[in-house]
Amino acid sequence: MGVSAAAKLDDLRARLAAHPAVVVAFSGGVDSAFLLKVAADALGERCHAVTAVSPTMARSEVADALALGAELGLGPRHHVVEANELEVPGYADNPVDRCALCKTELMDVAAPVAAVAGAGAVVALGTNLDDLGDHRPGIAAARARGAIMPMVDAALAKAEIRALSQALGLRTWNKPQLACLSSRFPYGTRITRERLRQVDALEDGLRGLGLRQVRVRFHETIARLELELDDLPRLLAPGVRERVVDLGKAQGFTYVTVDLAGFRSGSLNEVLAAPSLVTLGRGPRRVS
Known about the structure:
Elements: H1 5-17, E1 21-25, H2 30-43, E2 47-53, H3 59-71, E3 78-82, H4 98-117, E4 121-124, H5 137-144, H6 150-153, H7 158-167, H8 193-208, E5 214-219, E6 222-227, H9 232-235, H10 240-250, E7 255-258, E8 276-279, E9 284-287
Parallel strand pairs: 1-2, 1-4, 2-3, 6-7
Antiparallel strand pairs: 5-6, 8-9
Helix pairs in contact: 1-2, 2-7, 4-5
């Protein structure tokens, strides 16, 4: 018989409480909100949060992360800092190890917060067990910088985190999956502030039409929409299809298309099915 979610939650609490202080990297998504709630309950004033605001973060998520931090009672222990991955050498070229560059930047801006939190403070990421099954060079980069991933260590998967979040009264329990806006661009496609805003604004508009889980994949003049399959009929409802096209054209896209395979997290990693070499700062490392 497997370990219950409740037992894993107890394990997570114990792991967090064992540290002198914990700084949760908090984006406002399902995973980081759950981790912050558990850490705040387990450590009290020894728990801090850091939200790195950058051009790659959806504007709506910045506001929501601030609201959630207040709801969880962090007060001045919620540190909002500026980051700019686009200024990291190589990042804007969108290499396959882009996430490693991003996590390195995150750890750099989180380090001063950890210093404020006190001696022995660690930075904790909301990585869960399911995240290990995809191409995630950022995980290795963050670990190399000293980050801990306590939900992986407690063997918590996404479905368990959602269920436990609901039991804890977190409004994020059924929040759609989120990801850095840079994940909308195929590897090798240059990432710019203007393009990030195009994607962000179109996704905002689609959510305004009642489409919850959306991704706008950027293909130069083409916006490829990934939606939950159950939402496809909604997309074709009278007046909605036309509105979606108008929204896309308003953001500078010539064509607005729909991916019939539907939403899937990390779909742009499908081109990485064959093993490839990426650089993580200490020479090449093979991934698959």
